[in-house]
Amino acid sequence: MLKIPPHQVAGHQAGNGKLGPLVDESGRFYKPLQGDERGSNELKFYTSFSSDSRIPEHISKFFPTFYGTQLIEASDGSGLKPHLVLEDLSIGRVNPSIVDIKMGSRTWAPEASEEYIQKCLKKDRETSSLPLGFRLSGIQIYGNKESGYWKPERTSMQNLPAEEVKLILKKFVSSNTSTGMDLQPDCAFTATVYGGSTGILSQLLEMKAWFEDQTTYHFYSCSILIMFEKGLALEGQNPGGQIKLIDFAHVTEGRGVIDHNFLGGLCSLIKLISEILTAPNEHKSLVSSVNGVN
Amino acid sequence: MLKIPPHQVAGHQAGNGKLGPLVDESGRFYKPLQGDERGSNELKFYTSFSSDSRIPEHISKFFPTFYGTQLIEASDGSGLKPHLVLEDLSIGRVNPSIVDIKMGSRTWAPEASEEYIQKCLKKDRETSSLPLGFRLSGIQIYGNKESGYWKPERTSMQNLPAEEVKLILKKFVSSNTSTGMDLQPDCAFTATVYGGSTGILSQLLEMKAWFEDQTTYHFYSCSILIMFEKGLALEGQNPGGQIKLIDFAHVTEGRGVIDHNFLGGLCSLIKLISEILTAPNEHKSLVSSVNGVN
After folding, report:
1. Using CB atoms, which residue from A161, A256, A268 is nearest to B162?
2. Among partner residues B130, B132, B264, which is closest to A264 by beta-carbon distance?
3. How far is CA B105 from CA A198, A251, A275, B68, B181, in A?
4. Measured between alpha carbons, how far is residue B235 from residues A7, A208, B192, B230, B239 in Å?
5. ipTM beyond 0.95?
6. To probe the interface with B, which of A217, A255, A260 has the most B CB atoms within 10 Å?
7. Banded pLDDT at A283 (limits 50, 70, 90)
8. pTM, 2 dp
């Protein structure tokens, strides 16, 4: 029985007759293969990457498992359509908090079409991609049983200055309920989610070390997902913080050069999260005065 | 007594009635203050940086010492003009080999004028800046007393693919004479120039650690100079390999974000130099076949 993924925060979404990904109960995620070269490019990437013996296990774990392609009924009712069959990254999670971060100050490859380059360049300049090296593409933060999720408008997240992005990454690891998201974040789970030897920062640093070395793939317009379970954090358990890379429709060949565009954005994200870990409460007064709270 | 710098490899050059920098015998370098905002911006940077107490000594050593400004006779005969007074980086060097590497896949700041952005973007796309994260802006490689310097046309260096850039960075540390530059490079001084605890790679890594952390300056269109004395290397002495940062007319405020654009290019350069150190002779067969040698 296929259904609409309950925890998708960015990208094309199924429902209301629209084409989008579906999930089943066995933990598989069905992503419609886009009809143009984006679809063939993403399939080419998954096929190449999943059979690339040079990728160490501590890196391949950051990517969704690939199970090939399959013809299934498309979500928009247009009949059988080819889908990529991937690991459902939210399987086993109850109330995941998730942020989708589109990486790179440049979301276009040098060899893309002029029309596509101009479209991306305009968006990179209008959003925080250019100043920050990445932009927030979507987010959901679990509050509690009563308040549910805080899930702001996606476009409202894309063009924030560094201090605002940092504030959102603090809210992400706070115990505030979703109705309390306008208050200053208490940063209650900073150390348990971002910190520690298996926390988000450690995982980002592991990914960084690979990007400093690998010259096979350039990951244009690809996203890092950061996920964890606030419910577990509230109970004092390990919240299962995890990063995953998704969206490979614009991956190109590295041709012997590292992906300095992705890597630059990754270092920028690492710096922001390091600062939050070092001084989680540094901006409380700023937040209070902005919201008139105290 | 002011004269034209003997070892300038890029940028505006004095001589033939043109405006360019001059040097004196006491080790000072006089750079004409550009009349537009580039001049005021570069002066602002040197003034701010040289009084910034947060810059540790192991980082400030990568920058030319700043001695203020001075009115001197301009090289183009136009009379007294304000000049930045800087350390002459080639002082004490006899026959330096020098490469000027313009850093970043993007040489324009987000806040630059539309006209300037379009001009830079075009050049970044036409050169190796976009694919590599940097471009070679100029080079001189000392051969020996008889052959002098190999100093190819500057524009011929700017749009090379990664393998060709790597080849030039191998020639840079080879004992080939300047007349033998078409032959395969012997990479004789790879370890002594690029390697070792005080070599070029170590210095680049020291600079990288700072760029991963500092959020004060964004160094658009700035260059790394790499210099050493082949004469000393030939005599088995320490060749004095050194990196320096120059050209700060387009530095902007970091606003709490790292310079991911410079850092990405720096990591790309570090990767290429690491590969040369690991396998200096890997491409000999390619070089031989290209040049019809063997």
Report:
1. A256
2. B264
3. 33, 18, 26, 31, 28
4. 67, 40, 12, 9, 9
5. no
6. A260
7. low
8. 0.94
